[in-house]
Design goal:
Largest sheet: 11 strands, mixed
Protein name: Glycoside hydrolase family 16 protein
Structural class: mainly beta
Oligomer: single chain
Radius of gyration: 18 Å
Keywords: Hydrolase, Signal
Helix content: under 10%
Shape: globular
GO molecular function: hydrolase activity
Pfam family, one: Glyco_hydro_16
Number of helices: 1
InterPro entries: Beta-glucanase-like, ConA-like_dom_sf, Glycosyl_Hydrlase_16
Number of strands: 19
Order of helices and strands: EEEEEEEEEEEEEEEEEEHE
């Protein structure tokens, strides 16, 4: 498994920063108290142990003991007005080959043998989740992936909380998002009830990887009770700290979350500049997913 690092990481601008009180970093890392953009090493703590992984070594469909297909809103449409139909058990959209998970968005209509939940979409894709199979509270997460470019593509590696609340109260951690009209710019973002894109208060940052769509990179999350760090290839570019207030609207990240891998098509952000039909089929390839945790937590 070969992971090639970009020759240089050009740090982008912070997305929207909330006017929150500047939190103190209880981890003692020496980080600036400002949430959002940082530039610092990101390393897995030496005492963490591997608790879950998928190396994608067995050809065929994704392992049902590790992944489920999320098809829950195919009929009525997805939350951000994306244009894809998420299939289940369809190798054209999700399969393992040559030691890689391949998620593929395709320009096609399912007119033959139409599934009951088909909403007439012009694109198919896949959305894999660990919900109900594996969830984690805190840890170091690493996903080695090569993402698609092309206007209208919207791949993501992200997490949602299992507390039962509606979005965004359950907490969302976006380890990697990329919109194809802005090639090479990857985003790390958090959403909570207090900080979210609907209110225009989400907290995040971005980094430019010139070869994001041609090379594998290690997309990383270091999540502790004190703070969240998001980075790539051993360098953190986004930070969000627990302000210690105990306010669930500000820090819902004290409960387990599950992992999501998907390629959306179009939508409020991914389709902001339209969809190029010639960009499809579009693939996100995943070399591995690995999760480590502190045995004492």
């Amino acid at each position: 498994m070969t992971v090639r690092r970009a020759a240089a990481l050009a740090l982008g601008a912070v997305s929207l920063l909330a006017d929150a009180p500047a939190p103190q970093d209880a981890s003692g890392s020496g980080l600036s108290a400002k949430n959002g953009r940082v530039d610092m090493p990101l390393e897995r703590p030496a005492d963490y142990r591997l608790v879950w992984s998928d190396e994608f070594d067995s050809p065929g469909l994704p392992d049902p003991a590790k992944w489920r297909y999320d098809t829950s809103r195919n009929k009525q449409g997805w939350y951000n007005h994306e244009k894809q139909y998420y299939s289940a058990g369809r190798p054209e959209n999700a399969r393992i080959a040559d030691g890689k998970l391949i998620l593929q968005a395709r320009r096609e209509r399912l007119d033959d043998d139409t599934p009951d939940d088909y909403g007439g979409q012009d694109y198919t894709s896949a959305r894999l989740v660990t919900r109900g199979l594996a969830e984690w509270k805190y840890g170091f997460f690493e996903v080695s992936a090569k993402i698609p470019c092309g206007r209208g593509t919207w791949p993501a590696i992200w997490m949602l909380g299992t507390g039962g609340e509606d979005w965004p109260a359950q907490g969302e951690i976006d380890i990697m998002e990329h919109v194809g009209f802005d090639p090479g710019v990857v985003h790390g973002t958090i959403h909570t009830k207090a900080y979210n894109h609907v209110a225009g208060t989400q907290i995040g940052s971005q980094v430019t990887l010139d070869d994001a769509c041609t090379s594998f990179h290690r997309y990383q999350l270091d999540w502790s009770p004190q703070r969240i760090l998001i980075g790539v290839d051993g360098r953190a570019y986004m930070r969000f700290a627990n302000d210690g207030s105990g306010d669930h609207a500000r820090w819902p990240f004290d409960r387990p979350e599950y992992l999501i891998l998907n390629i959306a098509v179009g939508g409020d952000w991914g389709g902001k500049k339209g969809i190029d039909p010639d960009a499809f089929p579009a693939r996100m390839m995943v070399d591995y997913v690995r999760i480590w945790q502190n045995p004492g937590q």
